[in-house]
Amino acid sequence: MAMSPRKRARVSRAVQYVVLAVLVVAVALVADWKTLGSTFLDPDLAREQFPDIISVALKNTILYTIGAFVFGLALGLVLALMRLSSVGPYRWLATTFIEFFRGVPALIVFIGFYFGLPIAFPGRQIPGGTFGVVVIALGLVGAAYMAETIRAGIQAVPKGQMEAARSLGMSHSRAMVTIIVPQAFRIILPPLTNELILLTKDSSLVYVVGLTFADYELTKFGREGLNDNANLTPLFLAALCYLLITVPLSIVVRRMEARSERAR
Amino acid sequence: MTERTRESGAAIDVLQLHKYFGDNEVLQGIDFHVGNGQVVCVIGPSGSGKSTLLRCVNLLETPTSGKIFIEDTEITDPDVDVDAVRSRIGMVFQQFNLFPHMTVLKNLTVAQQKVKGRGKDEAVECARRNLAKVGLAEREDAYPAHLSGGQQQRIAIARALSMDPDMMLFDEPTSALDPELVGDVLGVMKDLASEGMTMMVVTHEMGFAREVGDKLVFMDGGVIVEEGDPVAVLGDPQHERTQSFLSKVL
Ligand SMILES: Nc1ncnc2c1ncn2[C@@H]1O[C@H](COP(=O)(O)OP(=O)(O)O)[C@@H](O)[C@H]1O
Ligand SMILES: [Mg+2]
Protein backbone atom coordinates (compact mmCIF):
# COMPACT_ATOMS: atom_id res chain seq x y z
CA MET A 1 0.00 0.00 0.00
CA ALA A 2 1.34 3.45 -0.87
CA MET A 3 2.19 5.74 2.05
CA SER A 4 1.52 9.45 1.96
CA PRO A 5 4.72 11.54 1.66
CA ARG A 6 4.29 12.86 5.19
CA LYS A 7 3.87 9.43 6.66
CA ARG A 8 6.87 8.15 4.74
CA ALA A 9 8.98 11.00 6.13
CA ARG A 10 7.86 10.14 9.68
CA VAL A 11 8.77 6.46 9.26
CA SER A 12 12.14 7.34 7.80
CA ARG A 13 12.90 9.64 10.73
CA ALA A 14 11.93 6.93 13.22
CA VAL A 15 14.27 4.46 11.52
CA GLN A 16 17.12 6.97 11.73
CA TYR A 17 16.57 7.46 15.48
CA VAL A 18 16.55 3.68 16.08
CA VAL A 19 19.81 3.20 14.17
CA LEU A 20 21.43 6.01 16.16
CA ALA A 21 20.27 4.54 19.49
CA VAL A 22 21.61 1.09 18.58
CA LEU A 23 25.00 2.56 17.64
CA VAL A 24 25.28 4.53 20.87
CA VAL A 25 24.43 1.51 22.98
CA ALA A 26 26.88 -0.67 21.07
CA VAL A 27 29.74 1.80 21.55
CA ALA A 28 28.90 2.21 25.24
CA LEU A 29 29.00 -1.56 25.77
CA VAL A 30 32.18 -2.19 23.79
CA ALA A 31 34.26 0.69 25.16
CA ASP A 32 36.28 0.40 28.35
CA TRP A 33 35.42 3.82 29.71
CA LYS A 34 37.92 3.97 32.50
CA THR A 35 40.93 3.18 30.34
CA LEU A 36 39.57 5.36 27.58
CA GLY A 37 39.19 8.27 29.96
CA SER A 38 42.68 8.02 31.38
CA THR A 39 44.20 7.53 27.93
CA PHE A 40 42.58 10.58 26.39
CA LEU A 41 42.36 12.89 29.35
CA ASP A 42 44.50 11.94 32.31
CA PRO A 43 43.96 14.87 34.73
CA ASP A 44 47.49 14.89 36.15
CA LEU A 45 49.14 14.60 32.77
CA ALA A 46 46.77 17.24 31.42
CA ARG A 47 47.86 19.65 34.15
CA GLU A 48 51.52 18.99 33.30
CA GLN A 49 50.99 20.24 29.75
CA PHE A 50 50.42 23.75 30.96
CA PRO A 51 51.70 26.36 30.45
CA ASP A 52 53.94 25.04 27.64
CA ILE A 53 51.09 23.91 25.41
CA ILE A 54 49.88 27.51 25.35
CA SER A 55 53.05 29.57 25.74
CA VAL A 56 55.06 27.48 23.26
CA ALA A 57 52.90 25.23 21.10
CA LEU A 58 49.76 27.30 20.56
CA LYS A 59 51.83 30.46 20.26
CA ASN A 60 54.04 28.91 17.57
CA THR A 61 51.10 27.49 15.65
CA ILE A 62 49.55 30.95 15.56
CA LEU A 63 52.83 32.62 14.62
CA TYR A 64 53.57 30.15 11.80
CA THR A 65 50.02 30.44 10.49
CA ILE A 66 49.87 34.23 10.55
CA GLY A 67 53.33 34.54 9.03
CA ALA A 68 52.45 32.14 6.23
CA PHE A 69 49.09 33.82 5.69
CA VAL A 70 50.57 37.29 5.36
CA PHE A 71 53.34 36.11 3.05
CA GLY A 72 50.90 33.96 1.07
CA LEU A 73 48.38 36.78 0.75
CA ALA A 74 50.96 39.23 -0.57
CA LEU A 75 52.35 36.69 -3.03
CA GLY A 76 48.84 35.52 -3.94
CA LEU A 77 47.84 39.09 -4.83
CA VAL A 78 50.88 39.47 -7.06
CA LEU A 79 50.13 36.12 -8.72
CA ALA A 80 46.47 37.05 -9.22
CA LEU A 81 47.45 40.34 -10.89
CA MET A 82 49.96 38.46 -13.04
CA ARG A 83 47.25 36.00 -14.12
CA LEU A 84 45.08 38.93 -15.18
CA SER A 85 47.94 40.71 -16.92
CA SER A 86 47.86 41.38 -20.63
CA VAL A 87 51.52 40.31 -20.80
CA GLY A 88 51.59 36.64 -21.83
CA PRO A 89 54.74 35.51 -20.00
CA TYR A 90 53.41 36.90 -16.70
CA ARG A 91 50.23 34.87 -17.14
CA TRP A 92 52.15 31.70 -17.99
CA LEU A 93 54.54 32.12 -15.07
CA ALA A 94 51.73 32.64 -12.60
CA THR A 95 49.70 29.74 -13.98
CA THR A 96 52.70 27.40 -13.76
CA PHE A 97 53.39 28.44 -10.18
CA ILE A 98 49.77 28.05 -9.13
CA GLU A 99 49.31 24.67 -10.77
CA PHE A 100 52.56 23.39 -9.30
CA PHE A 101 51.92 24.36 -5.71
CA ARG A 102 48.26 23.37 -5.81
CA GLY A 103 49.09 20.04 -7.37
CA VAL A 104 51.96 18.97 -5.10
CA PRO A 105 51.41 17.83 -1.49
CA ALA A 106 52.35 20.51 1.02
CA LEU A 107 54.45 17.90 2.81
CA ILE A 108 56.72 17.58 -0.22
CA VAL A 109 57.12 21.33 -0.36
CA PHE A 110 58.17 21.32 3.31
CA ILE A 111 60.66 18.52 2.90
CA GLY A 112 62.02 20.07 -0.27
CA PHE A 113 62.51 23.39 1.45
CA TYR A 114 64.05 22.14 4.64
CA PHE A 115 66.27 19.42 3.27
CA GLY A 116 66.49 20.26 -0.41
CA LEU A 117 67.49 23.93 -0.31
CA PRO A 118 70.66 23.46 1.78
CA ILE A 119 71.77 20.80 -0.72
CA ALA A 120 70.89 22.93 -3.72
CA PHE A 121 72.44 26.10 -2.29
CA PRO A 122 75.20 25.00 0.07
CA GLY A 123 76.10 27.55 2.68
CA ARG A 124 72.92 29.54 2.13
CA GLN A 125 70.15 29.71 4.69
CA ILE A 126 66.58 30.90 4.68
CA PRO A 127 66.47 33.91 6.98
CA GLY A 128 64.52 33.54 10.18
CA GLY A 129 65.43 29.92 10.92
CA THR A 130 62.52 27.55 11.40
CA PHE A 131 60.05 30.41 11.33
CA GLY A 132 61.41 31.52 7.96
CA VAL A 133 61.21 28.02 6.48
CA VAL A 134 57.65 27.47 7.68
CA VAL A 135 56.43 30.88 6.58
CA ILE A 136 57.90 30.51 3.12
CA ALA A 137 57.01 26.85 2.50
CA LEU A 138 53.50 27.14 3.88
CA GLY A 139 53.11 30.60 2.34
CA LEU A 140 53.98 29.32 -1.15
CA VAL A 141 51.27 26.68 -0.93
CA GLY A 142 48.76 29.16 0.53
CA ALA A 143 49.65 31.73 -2.14
CA ALA A 144 48.75 29.32 -4.93
CA TYR A 145 45.26 28.81 -3.52
CA MET A 146 44.74 32.43 -2.51
CA ALA A 147 45.82 33.67 -5.95
CA GLU A 148 42.88 31.87 -7.54
CA THR A 149 40.51 33.20 -4.89
CA ILE A 150 41.77 36.75 -5.34
CA ARG A 151 41.55 36.50 -9.11
CA ALA A 152 37.94 35.36 -8.86
CA GLY A 153 37.27 38.28 -6.47
CA ILE A 154 38.80 40.82 -8.85
CA GLN A 155 36.72 39.43 -11.71
CA ALA A 156 33.59 39.60 -9.57
CA VAL A 157 33.89 43.39 -9.21
CA PRO A 158 31.43 44.89 -11.73
CA LYS A 159 33.06 46.12 -14.95
CA GLY A 160 31.55 49.57 -14.44
CA GLN A 161 33.87 50.18 -11.49
CA MET A 162 36.98 50.03 -13.66
CA GLU A 163 35.27 52.15 -16.31
CA ALA A 164 34.25 54.77 -13.77
CA ALA A 165 37.78 54.91 -12.37
CA ARG A 166 39.34 55.13 -15.83
CA SER A 167 36.90 57.81 -16.92
CA LEU A 168 38.09 59.91 -13.98
CA GLY A 169 41.58 59.69 -15.45
CA MET A 170 43.04 56.96 -13.25
CA SER A 171 45.58 54.67 -14.88
CA HIS A 172 44.80 50.96 -15.01
CA SER A 173 47.12 50.13 -12.13
CA ARG A 174 45.95 53.08 -10.03
CA ALA A 175 42.35 51.94 -10.52
CA MET A 176 43.30 48.37 -9.56
CA VAL A 177 44.93 49.48 -6.34
CA THR A 178 42.40 52.05 -5.12
CA ILE A 179 39.12 50.84 -6.58
CA ILE A 180 39.11 47.20 -7.69
CA VAL A 181 41.32 45.28 -5.24
CA PRO A 182 39.72 46.73 -2.07
CA GLN A 183 36.29 45.67 -3.34
CA ALA A 184 37.61 42.26 -4.38
CA PHE A 185 38.87 41.64 -0.85
CA ARG A 186 35.43 42.36 0.58
CA ILE A 187 33.94 39.79 -1.74
CA ILE A 188 36.50 37.11 -0.90
CA LEU A 189 36.76 37.63 2.85
CA PRO A 190 34.88 34.37 3.60
CA PRO A 191 37.02 32.12 1.34
CA LEU A 192 40.17 33.85 2.58
CA THR A 193 39.20 33.09 6.16
CA ASN A 194 38.67 29.47 5.12
CA GLU A 195 42.18 29.54 3.73
CA LEU A 196 43.39 30.75 7.13
CA ILE A 197 41.72 27.72 8.73
CA LEU A 198 43.41 25.37 6.27
CA LEU A 199 46.77 27.02 6.92
CA THR A 200 46.30 26.64 10.66
CA LYS A 201 45.97 22.92 10.19
CA ASP A 202 48.70 22.69 7.55
CA SER A 203 51.14 24.38 9.93
CA SER A 204 51.28 20.95 11.62
CA LEU A 205 53.36 19.71 8.68
CA VAL A 206 56.31 21.51 10.18
CA TYR A 207 56.85 18.39 12.29
CA VAL A 208 58.95 16.94 9.43
CA VAL A 209 61.65 19.52 9.97
CA GLY A 210 63.76 18.87 13.03
CA LEU A 211 62.59 21.24 15.72
CA THR A 212 63.98 22.28 19.04
CA PHE A 213 61.48 22.51 21.86
CA ALA A 214 61.15 26.28 21.57
CA ASP A 215 59.94 25.84 17.98
CA TYR A 216 57.34 23.15 18.73
CA GLU A 217 53.87 23.82 17.44
CA LEU A 218 50.75 21.99 18.58
CA THR A 219 51.04 18.77 16.60
CA LYS A 220 54.72 18.25 17.34
CA PHE A 221 54.07 19.08 20.98
CA GLY A 222 51.25 16.56 21.22
CA ARG A 223 53.21 13.89 19.40
CA GLU A 224 56.25 14.25 21.63
CA GLY A 225 53.95 14.06 24.64
CA LEU A 226 52.47 10.87 23.25
CA ASN A 227 55.94 9.35 22.84
CA ASP A 228 57.10 10.33 26.31
CA ASN A 229 54.02 9.20 28.24
CA ALA A 230 52.44 6.51 26.07
CA ASN A 231 49.27 8.50 26.63
CA LEU A 232 47.03 10.45 24.25
CA THR A 233 46.27 13.31 26.63
CA PRO A 234 48.79 15.81 25.18
CA LEU A 235 47.66 15.06 21.63
CA PHE A 236 44.03 15.38 22.63
CA LEU A 237 44.71 18.73 24.27
CA ALA A 238 46.57 19.85 21.16
CA ALA A 239 43.53 18.93 19.10
CA LEU A 240 41.35 21.03 21.41
CA CYS A 241 43.73 23.96 20.91
CA TYR A 242 43.28 23.71 17.13
CA LEU A 243 39.53 23.82 17.63
CA LEU A 244 40.01 26.90 19.78
CA ILE A 245 41.36 28.64 16.69
CA THR A 246 39.37 27.05 13.89
CA VAL A 247 35.85 26.93 15.33
CA PRO A 248 35.60 30.69 15.99
CA LEU A 249 37.01 31.32 12.52
CA SER A 250 34.38 29.07 10.93
CA ILE A 251 31.68 30.86 12.87
CA VAL A 252 33.01 34.16 11.54
CA VAL A 253 32.96 32.77 8.00
CA ARG A 254 29.38 31.54 8.37
CA ARG A 255 28.30 34.94 9.72
CA MET A 256 29.94 36.74 6.83
CA GLU A 257 28.35 34.39 4.31
CA ALA A 258 24.94 34.82 5.88
CA ARG A 259 25.36 38.57 5.78
CA SER A 260 26.35 38.70 2.12
CA GLU A 261 23.46 36.33 1.40
CA ARG A 262 21.08 38.82 3.01
CA ALA A 263 22.67 41.76 1.22
CA ARG A 264 21.77 40.19 -2.10
CA MET B 1 32.09 61.29 -50.76
CA THR B 2 33.14 64.66 -49.45
CA GLU B 3 35.84 64.64 -46.80
CA ARG B 4 34.56 66.50 -43.78
CA THR B 5 36.99 68.83 -42.12
CA ARG B 6 37.19 70.03 -38.56
CA GLU B 7 34.89 72.82 -37.52
CA SER B 8 36.36 75.58 -35.46
CA GLY B 9 35.28 76.08 -31.85
CA ALA B 10 34.52 72.39 -31.53
CA ALA B 11 34.58 70.67 -28.15
CA ILE B 12 34.04 67.23 -29.65
CA ASP B 13 34.62 66.47 -33.29
CA VAL B 14 34.13 62.98 -34.65
CA LEU B 15 35.17 62.29 -38.25
CA GLN B 16 34.24 59.15 -40.21
CA LEU B 17 34.23 56.97 -37.10
CA HIS B 18 33.93 53.23 -37.62
CA LYS B 19 33.78 50.70 -34.81
CA TYR B 20 33.68 46.93 -35.17
CA PHE B 21 33.07 44.37 -32.48
CA GLY B 22 34.45 41.33 -34.28
CA ASP B 23 32.61 41.27 -37.60
CA ASN B 24 29.80 43.44 -36.29
CA GLU B 25 30.11 47.00 -37.60
CA VAL B 26 28.45 48.91 -34.78
CA LEU B 27 29.38 52.41 -35.96
CA GLN B 28 29.33 52.83 -39.73
CA GLY B 29 31.04 56.11 -40.46
CA ILE B 30 29.85 58.65 -37.91
CA ASP B 31 30.42 62.37 -38.36
CA PHE B 32 29.48 64.14 -35.20
CA HIS B 33 30.11 67.55 -33.78
CA VAL B 34 29.55 69.26 -30.45
CA GLY B 35 30.32 72.96 -30.27
CA ASN B 36 31.75 74.61 -27.19
CA GLY B 37 29.02 75.12 -24.61
CA GLN B 38 26.51 73.13 -26.65
CA VAL B 39 24.16 70.46 -25.35
CA VAL B 40 23.76 67.68 -27.90
CA CYS B 41 21.26 64.90 -27.23
CA VAL B 42 21.50 61.51 -28.91
CA ILE B 43 18.42 59.33 -29.30
CA GLY B 44 17.73 56.10 -31.10
CA PRO B 45 16.57 52.54 -30.61
CA SER B 46 18.42 50.13 -28.37
CA GLY B 47 21.48 48.64 -30.06
CA SER B 48 21.85 51.52 -32.51
CA GLY B 49 25.35 52.36 -31.26
CA LYS B 50 24.65 55.38 -29.02
CA SER B 51 26.65 54.09 -26.06
CA THR B 52 29.47 52.94 -28.28
CA LEU B 53 29.74 56.40 -29.85
CA LEU B 54 29.75 58.06 -26.43
CA ARG B 55 32.31 55.61 -25.08
CA CYS B 56 34.59 56.16 -28.07
CA VAL B 57 34.70 59.84 -27.20
CA ASN B 58 36.62 59.11 -24.00
CA LEU B 59 38.29 56.00 -25.37
CA LEU B 60 36.50 53.49 -23.17
CA GLU B 61 36.11 51.84 -26.57
CA THR B 62 38.92 52.00 -29.12
CA PRO B 63 37.70 53.26 -32.50
CA THR B 64 38.49 50.93 -35.40
CA SER B 65 39.03 53.84 -37.77
CA GLY B 66 38.28 57.52 -38.07
CA LYS B 67 39.37 60.51 -36.04
CA ILE B 68 38.15 62.07 -32.82
CA PHE B 69 39.23 65.47 -31.59
CA ILE B 70 38.67 66.79 -28.09
CA GLU B 71 39.16 70.52 -28.47
CA ASP B 72 42.57 70.59 -30.15
CA THR B 73 43.77 67.13 -29.15
CA GLU B 74 43.42 64.28 -31.59
CA ILE B 75 42.67 61.48 -29.14
CA THR B 76 42.75 58.81 -31.84
CA ASP B 77 46.48 59.55 -32.19
CA PRO B 78 48.17 56.43 -30.77
CA ASP B 79 50.63 58.55 -28.79
CA VAL B 80 47.99 60.47 -26.89
CA ASP B 81 47.98 60.36 -23.07
CA VAL B 82 44.65 58.62 -22.56
CA ASP B 83 44.45 59.35 -18.84
CA ALA B 84 45.06 63.05 -19.35
CA VAL B 85 42.31 63.18 -21.99
CA ARG B 86 39.85 61.35 -19.77
CA SER B 87 40.48 63.61 -16.82
CA ARG B 88 39.15 66.49 -18.97
CA ILE B 89 35.94 64.64 -19.81
CA GLY B 90 33.33 63.86 -17.15
CA MET B 91 31.36 60.67 -17.70
CA VAL B 92 28.05 59.69 -16.12
CA PHE B 93 26.83 56.11 -16.49
CA GLN B 94 23.36 54.59 -16.51
CA GLN B 95 24.31 52.42 -13.50
CA PHE B 96 25.93 55.32 -11.55
CA ASN B 97 29.08 53.24 -10.82
CA LEU B 98 29.83 54.99 -7.55
CA PHE B 99 32.61 53.34 -5.55
CA PRO B 100 30.65 51.36 -2.95
CA HIS B 101 33.53 51.01 -0.49
CA MET B 102 34.00 54.76 -0.15
CA THR B 103 31.91 57.49 1.43
CA VAL B 104 30.32 60.08 -0.80
CA LEU B 105 33.05 62.57 0.04
CA LYS B 106 35.80 60.04 -0.72
CA ASN B 107 34.09 59.20 -4.03
CA LEU B 108 34.48 62.85 -4.95
CA THR B 109 38.00 63.42 -3.68
CA VAL B 110 39.87 60.24 -4.60
CA ALA B 111 40.52 61.07 -8.25
CA GLN B 112 41.18 64.73 -7.50
CA GLN B 113 43.97 63.67 -5.19
CA LYS B 114 45.36 60.70 -7.11
CA VAL B 115 44.96 62.05 -10.65
CA LYS B 116 45.04 65.82 -10.31
CA GLY B 117 47.47 65.76 -7.41
CA ARG B 118 45.34 68.11 -5.36
CA GLY B 119 45.90 68.37 -1.64
CA LYS B 120 43.28 67.01 0.70
CA ASP B 121 41.87 70.39 1.75
CA GLU B 122 41.53 71.63 -1.80
CA ALA B 123 39.92 68.35 -2.89
CA VAL B 124 37.43 68.38 -0.03
CA GLU B 125 36.52 72.00 -0.67
CA CYS B 126 35.90 71.31 -4.35
CA ALA B 127 33.89 68.18 -3.48
CA ARG B 128 31.67 70.10 -1.04
CA ARG B 129 31.05 72.81 -3.61
CA ASN B 130 29.84 70.21 -6.11
CA LEU B 131 27.78 68.32 -3.52
CA ALA B 132 25.99 71.56 -2.72
CA LYS B 133 25.41 72.11 -6.43
CA VAL B 134 23.59 68.76 -6.76
CA GLY B 135 21.67 69.41 -3.54
CA LEU B 136 23.29 66.70 -1.42
CA ALA B 137 25.65 68.65 0.83
CA GLU B 138 24.39 66.88 3.93
CA ARG B 139 25.11 63.36 2.63
CA GLU B 140 28.90 63.52 2.40
CA ASP B 141 29.44 60.83 5.05
CA ALA B 142 26.94 58.35 3.60
CA TYR B 143 27.93 55.25 1.69
CA PRO B 144 26.39 54.85 -1.80
CA ALA B 145 24.32 51.81 -0.77
CA HIS B 146 22.36 54.03 1.63
CA LEU B 147 21.30 56.48 -1.06
CA SER B 148 18.41 56.32 -3.49
CA GLY B 149 19.15 55.86 -7.18
CA GLY B 150 18.45 59.49 -7.86
CA GLN B 151 20.80 60.59 -5.11
CA GLN B 152 23.49 58.21 -6.36
CA GLN B 153 23.25 59.60 -9.85
CA ARG B 154 23.52 63.18 -8.58
CA ILE B 155 26.59 62.14 -6.58
CA ALA B 156 28.02 60.58 -9.73
CA ILE B 157 27.51 63.88 -11.54
CA ALA B 158 29.17 65.74 -8.66
CA ARG B 159 32.08 63.27 -8.77
CA ALA B 160 32.63 63.95 -12.45
CA LEU B 161 32.34 67.72 -11.91
CA SER B 162 34.93 67.63 -9.14
CA MET B 163 37.57 66.96 -11.79
CA ASP B 164 36.70 70.34 -13.36
CA PRO B 165 36.03 68.73 -16.75
CA ASP B 166 35.76 70.74 -19.96
CA MET B 167 32.76 68.68 -21.02
CA MET B 168 30.37 66.01 -19.73
CA LEU B 169 29.14 62.79 -21.31
CA PHE B 170 25.91 61.20 -20.08
CA ASP B 171 24.85 57.68 -21.06
CA GLU B 172 21.15 57.32 -20.30
CA PRO B 173 21.60 58.90 -16.86
CA THR B 174 17.96 58.48 -15.85
CA SER B 175 17.11 55.12 -17.41
CA ALA B 176 17.83 53.12 -14.24
CA LEU B 177 15.79 55.43 -12.01
CA ASP B 178 12.29 55.17 -10.61
CA PRO B 179 10.13 57.70 -12.47
CA GLU B 180 9.68 60.00 -9.46
CA LEU B 181 13.48 60.41 -9.12
CA VAL B 182 14.15 61.33 -12.74
CA GLY B 183 13.21 64.98 -12.26
CA ASP B 184 15.93 65.72 -9.68
CA VAL B 185 18.67 64.38 -11.93
CA LEU B 186 17.36 66.19 -15.00
CA GLY B 187 17.17 69.35 -12.88
CA VAL B 188 20.86 69.10 -12.04
CA MET B 189 21.67 68.57 -15.72
CA LYS B 190 19.60 71.58 -16.71
CA ASP B 191 21.48 73.75 -14.23
CA LEU B 192 24.74 72.52 -15.68
CA ALA B 193 23.61 73.33 -19.20
CA SER B 194 22.58 76.82 -18.19
CA GLU B 195 26.04 77.39 -16.72
CA GLY B 196 27.42 76.74 -20.19
CA MET B 197 28.79 73.21 -19.71
CA THR B 198 29.41 71.34 -22.95
CA MET B 199 27.30 68.20 -22.82
CA MET B 200 26.69 65.09 -24.90
CA VAL B 201 23.64 63.26 -23.60
CA VAL B 202 22.31 59.88 -24.69
CA THR B 203 18.75 59.88 -23.42
CA HIS B 204 15.16 58.80 -23.86
CA GLU B 205 13.90 61.97 -22.17
CA MET B 206 12.45 63.80 -25.17
CA GLY B 207 11.24 66.64 -22.94
CA PHE B 208 14.78 67.31 -21.77
CA ALA B 209 16.10 67.12 -25.33
CA ARG B 210 13.50 69.59 -26.55
CA GLU B 211 13.90 72.03 -23.69
CA VAL B 212 17.66 71.95 -23.05
CA GLY B 213 19.25 70.56 -26.19
CA ASP B 214 20.89 72.74 -28.81
CA LYS B 215 20.93 69.82 -31.20
CA LEU B 216 19.26 66.45 -31.45
CA VAL B 217 20.87 63.48 -33.17
CA PHE B 218 18.88 60.40 -34.16
CA MET B 219 20.90 57.22 -34.62
CA ASP B 220 19.79 53.89 -36.04
CA GLY B 221 21.81 50.87 -37.14
CA GLY B 222 25.18 52.50 -36.51
CA VAL B 223 24.58 55.62 -38.58
CA ILE B 224 23.27 59.09 -37.87
CA VAL B 225 19.95 59.15 -39.68
CA GLU B 226 18.88 62.68 -38.91
CA GLU B 227 20.06 65.62 -36.84
CA GLY B 228 19.07 69.18 -36.22
CA ASP B 229 17.23 71.55 -33.95
CA PRO B 230 15.45 69.39 -31.32
CA VAL B 231 12.11 71.12 -31.73
CA ALA B 232 12.24 70.64 -35.49
CA VAL B 233 13.39 67.02 -35.40
CA LEU B 234 10.86 66.03 -32.76
CA GLY B 235 8.00 68.02 -34.29
CA ASP B 236 8.62 67.36 -37.95
CA PRO B 237 11.02 64.43 -38.51
CA GLN B 238 12.12 64.20 -42.14
CA HIS B 239 13.30 60.63 -42.27
CA GLU B 240 10.94 57.67 -42.24
CA ARG B 241 13.01 55.78 -39.61
CA THR B 242 12.95 58.82 -37.33
CA GLN B 243 9.20 59.07 -37.73
CA SER B 244 8.64 55.45 -36.87
CA PHE B 245 10.95 55.63 -33.82
CA LEU B 246 9.34 58.80 -32.50
CA SER B 247 5.84 57.45 -33.01
CA LYS B 248 6.77 54.61 -30.68
CA VAL B 249 8.35 56.66 -27.88
CA LEU B 250 6.29 59.85 -27.86
N1 LIG C 1 31.73 45.12 -25.78
C1 LIG C 1 30.97 44.71 -26.83
N2 LIG C 1 31.27 43.57 -27.47
C2 LIG C 1 30.52 43.16 -28.53
N3 LIG C 1 29.44 43.82 -28.98
C3 LIG C 1 29.09 44.95 -28.37
C4 LIG C 1 29.82 45.46 -27.25
N4 LIG C 1 29.24 46.59 -26.84
C5 LIG C 1 28.19 46.79 -27.65
N5 LIG C 1 28.09 45.81 -28.58
C6 LIG C 1 27.09 45.73 -29.65
O1 LIG C 1 27.10 46.94 -30.35
C7 LIG C 1 25.80 47.33 -30.72
C8 LIG C 1 25.52 48.74 -30.23
O2 LIG C 1 25.52 48.73 -28.82
P1 LIG C 1 25.34 50.07 -27.99
O3 LIG C 1 26.31 51.07 -28.45
O4 LIG C 1 25.38 49.69 -26.55
O5 LIG C 1 23.88 50.51 -28.40
P2 LIG C 1 22.88 51.50 -27.66
O6 LIG C 1 23.62 52.21 -26.57
O7 LIG C 1 22.39 52.40 -28.73
O8 LIG C 1 21.77 50.65 -27.13
C9 LIG C 1 24.85 46.29 -30.13
O9 LIG C 1 24.49 45.41 -31.15
C10 LIG C 1 25.69 45.59 -29.11
O10 LIG C 1 25.30 44.25 -29.01
MG1 LIG D 1 23.30 52.21 -24.48
Automatic annotation (TrEMBL), chain A:
Keyword Lipoprotein (UniProt): no
Membrane-spanning residues: 61-81, 93-117, 129-147, 168-189, 235-254
Cross-referenced Pfam families: BPD_transp_1 (PF00528)
Membrane topology value: Multi-pass membrane protein
Gene3D superfamilies associated with the record: MetI-like
Residues in ABC transmembrane type-1 domain copies: 58-253
Keywords: Amino-acid transport, Cell membrane, Membrane, Transmembrane, Transmembrane helix, Transport
Subcellular location: Cell membrane
Family label: Belongs to the binding-protein-dependent transport system permease family.
NCBIfam families: HEQRo_perm_3TM
Protein's name in the database: Amino acid ABC transporter permease
TrEMBL record, chain B:
Keyword Membrane: yes
Name of the protein in question: Amino acid ABC transporter ATP-binding protein
Subcellular localization, as worded in the UniProt entry: Cell membrane
InterPro entries: AAA+_ATPase, ABC_ATPase_HisP-typ, ABC_transporter-like_ATP-bd, ABC_transporter-like_CS, MetN_ABC_transporter-like, P-loop_NTPase
Source taxon at top rank: Bacteria
Membrane topology: Peripheral membrane protein
Domain ABC transporter positions: 12-246
Signal peptide residue numbers: none
Alphabetized UniProt keyword annotations: Amino-acid transport, ATP-binding, Cell membrane, Membrane, Nucleotide-binding, Transport
Record-level Gene Ontology MF annotations: ATP binding
Family the entry assigns: Belongs to the ABC transporter superfamily.
Organism placement in taxonomy: Bacteria, Bacillati, Actinomycetota, Actinomycetes, Propionibacteriales
PROSITE patterns: ABC_TRANSPORTER_1, ABC_TRANSPORTER_2
